[in-house]
Amino acid sequence: MTTRGAGTSLFFVVVLVFSSSVAYVHSYGGRGENPLSDFIRIQRRKQIELLSSPGGANIVPGPINAAVNEQIDYEGLRKQAPQPVPDFPVYMEPQDGLKTADKIVSLPGQPRVNFNQYSGYVTVDGNAGRALFYYFVEATRFPSTKPLVLWLNGGPGCSSLGSGALAALGPFRVHKNGRTLKRNPYAWNKKANIIFLESPAFVGFSYSNRSSDFNSSGDTRTAHDAYTFLINWLERFPEYKNRELYLAGESYAGHYVPQLADVIIQKNIMPTTSQNMIINLQGLAVGNGLLDELLYMKSRIEFYYTHSLISEEMKDKLISCAPIVSNACTKLESIFEEEVTKDIMSYNIYSPACNSTSDSYNAPVCMNLNLYLHFGYEVSGIFRNETILERRFVD
């Protein structure tokens, strides 16, 4: 996979779509908003094109999907040739000595571990002073034989450090005290070397010195910056240059992952790319990916209906209300939010009823009780402590 000709075979990389359960659907990066209200607002704005695959996220295609799919010329889309990625200059800086400087001796309250970990910045645009923050953990056993995984959280705007590394697949979880760490028995670095990338700039600890970058970000620049990050990072960690690379993410990474893969694939075969800069991309993994928001939302309504959470009458009203702004539709949204889902965790309808140990963190009845809700709140303790951040992660 390190030869230029082999790059073309990467168009056939395996795409893995994973989910934790049938009932778990896209979580909007953990913001806890109500997806149906979002769907109705999106329909009113008319900003989304119907260019997704049938079913949407984890949902089995059904009558609503069939009706929507009739509007889409899938055969025509399949015949469209892939659009080439325009070439762009890749900013590069000397990386000598930075790997050693990035090494983390230990994290606060960390149990003893048998793997190396690093964190630091990689500049992706010298003129703008734009730099992306990463946290890297090597595999627990035989890291030199394990593949490399780049993890991207979605949102857009969710931290791959706070959400990905410390609340999902990283080597540690945060204790309830918000200051110390414990081992994560489901850590992915048991099987691979993992880079958690804060992307794009202004997400997490990533930044730009050019304030206009805040309003000019987009998927194209995000993909270019992530590619530039990889090229420089592989110079900083040259032992991983020819390693098998997998791109993985969730939620809005349904955009980030395939778009970055497209850049890598096309850059690999460009004559301007030196042999030393070819990336050994092997596959992709997207969990609960947001590929097309409008079609996904229609699938979500069908999910509620086919699981007896809403009536057929409610389903039809929600669909018909989507493009309409009216008091009646606003009232319908309120009825759904306040009555239909008040005792249900919408991201896992089979979750236990709300109590002090429940994971139904987004159910209104739980939030109204002001109980200790464990999901995500422990991590905030780490990020409120400047000493921990400066001395352990970003110093």
UniProtKB/TrEMBL annotation:
<dbReference type="InterPro" id="IPR029058">
    <property type="entry name" value="AB_hydrolase_fold"/>
</dbReference>
<dbReference type="InterPro" id="IPR018202">
    <property type="entry name" value="Ser_caboxypep_ser_AS"/>
</dbReference>
<feature type="signal peptide">
    <location>
        <begin position="1"/>
        <end position="27"/>
    </location>
</feature>
<keyword id="KW-0378">Hydrolase</keyword>
<keyword id="KW-1015">Disulfide bond</keyword>
<dbReference type="Pfam" id="PF00450">
    <property type="entry name" value="Peptidase_S10"/>
</dbReference>
<keyword id="KW-0964">Secreted</keyword>
<dbReference type="GO" id="GO:0005576">
    <property type="term" value="C:extracellular region"/>
</dbReference>
<comment type="similarity">
    <text>Belongs to the peptidase S10 family.</text>
</comment>
<keyword id="KW-0121">Carboxypeptidase</keyword>
<protein>
    <recommendedName>
        <fullName>Carboxypeptidase</fullName>
        <ecNumber>3.4.16.-</ecNumber>
    </recommendedName>
</protein>
<dbReference type="InterPro" id="IPR001563">
    <property type="entry name" value="Peptidase_S10"/>
</dbReference>
<keyword id="KW-0732">Signal</keyword>
<dbReference type="GO" id="GO:0004185">
    <property type="term" value="F:serine-type carboxypeptidase activity"/>
</dbReference>
<dbReference type="GO" id="GO:0005773">
    <property type="term" value="C:vacuole"/>
</dbReference>
<dbReference type="GO" id="GO:0006508">
    <property type="term" value="P:proteolysis"/>
</dbReference>
<keyword id="KW-0325">Glycoprotein</keyword>
<keyword id="KW-0645">Protease</keyword>
